[in-house]
Amino acid sequence: QGAGDKLAVPDFPTSLHEVTVTALVDPETNQQVLMVMQTDVSVRSVIEERLMALTAAQMILLEAMFPSIMFTDIVGFTAFSKECTPSQVMSLLNELFSKLDALLDKHNVYKVETAGDCYIICGGLLDEDEDGFQTVSTASPSHAAKIRAARRALNFAVEMMRVAATVILPNTGKPVVLRAGLHSGPVVSGLVGSRLPKFSLFGDTMNTASRMESTSLPGRIQVSQITYELLRDPRPSRWHPTGGVEVK
């Protein structure tokens, strides 16, 4: 090779293998032997690396974001649970939540979780990356983006009320009535747990949205002042001032 010459290095694909060694006793010779097993874990390694990167990206304070959170629950669910069998309770929740799930893509909102009869969604939380996968948004939103997030959550809540009325309570024969609460603000997101890890949201925004729901009236959607400012509507008849609600 002369001065300045370069060698071309073959681009071999990276392959990772996991080797396990187990001590055994040969049943015929009664001698101790070693069993060596080699497994290709290349695909698993890539998946684990992506999960680690996802966890690191999501364990951040989303101060730049302003998602809108909606909590809802079933009016009279405690009494219903006492008067019906567990299978009836499960059947009702499955029917109701399946119908609500069908509205998620239509209104472009994210289902955070369900807990008992509580159903929680979020507007303005996720973006779509260049590969078409949904990722937690970290970009600072414009005022228009904040309005869109709140509007999506409200539109979901409004249609949710209509859909709930098509589900009948087996103990009374009457339609399900929900109450809902909306609040907008920063949250913390992250994957929680090592077994069946769960993506969750935390922070005062979640607490306030929950309080908006618990102090709401049956069949109504109660919003915080912050969310109301984002949702200002030229039809004032849609809104009824509460005069203020005291919450924890």
UniProtKB/TrEMBL annotation:
GO biological process: one example: receptor guanylyl cyclase signaling pathway
CDD domains: CHD (cd07302)
SMART domains: CYCc (SM00044)
SUPFAM superfamilies registered for this protein in UniProt: Nucleotide cyclase (SSF55073)
Keywords: Lyase, Membrane, Nucleotide-binding, Transmembrane, Transmembrane helix
Pfam families (alphabetical): Guanylate_cyc (PF00211)
Ion transport is among the record's keywords: no
Cellular localisation: Membrane
An annotated Gene Ontology molecular function: nucleotide binding
GO CC term, one of those recorded: plasma membrane
Guanylate cyclase domain: residues covered: 68-213
Name this protein carries in UniProt: Guanylate cyclase domain-containing protein
Originating organism: Haematococcus lacustris (Green alga)
Upper classification of the organism: Eukaryota, Viridiplantae, Chlorophyta, core chlorophytes, Chlorophyceae
